[in-house]
Specification:
mainly alpha
Length: 111
């Protein structure tokens, strides 16, 4: 439980579908492979992983996003902020995806 503005917020445990994504991730599968195996969109898998990270689950970040891409995204966040992802994706270009930005936004907030 977390106290926010004098109210207690109960954080729900990750769902079974997110836990399945985490298990496959920990087996070394890429986001694309997990999406294909589970017949889900890549963006959904990134969403699962971002949520899992926010719940304190350990993930292999380098398996998700290369260190170079991580650094580029964090620099873009420094310049533009991370509240709105559209300006960041427009600056970085089509080779980046919203899922990567969402994961990095969660990582940045946890630091």
């Amino acid at each position: 439980a977390i106290t926010v503005n004098h109210a207690t917020v109960i954080r729900k445990a990750p769902s079974l579908t997110r836990k399945e994504t985490l298990l496959l991730h920990r087996q070394g599968l890429t986001v694309e492979s997990i999406a294909e195996k589970r017949q889900l969109a890549v963006s959904t898998i990134y969403g699962h992983l971002a949520d899992l990270i926010s719940h304190g689950e350990a993930v292999n970040l380098e398996n998700l996003i290369s260190p170079e891409r991580q650094e580029t995204i964090l620099l873009a966040f420094e310049k533009l902020g991370s509240d709105r992802l559209k300006p960041v994706i427009e600056m970085l270009g089509a080779e980046y995806c919203y899922g990567e930005l969402e994961v990095m936004r969660v990582i940045q907030k946890r630091r």
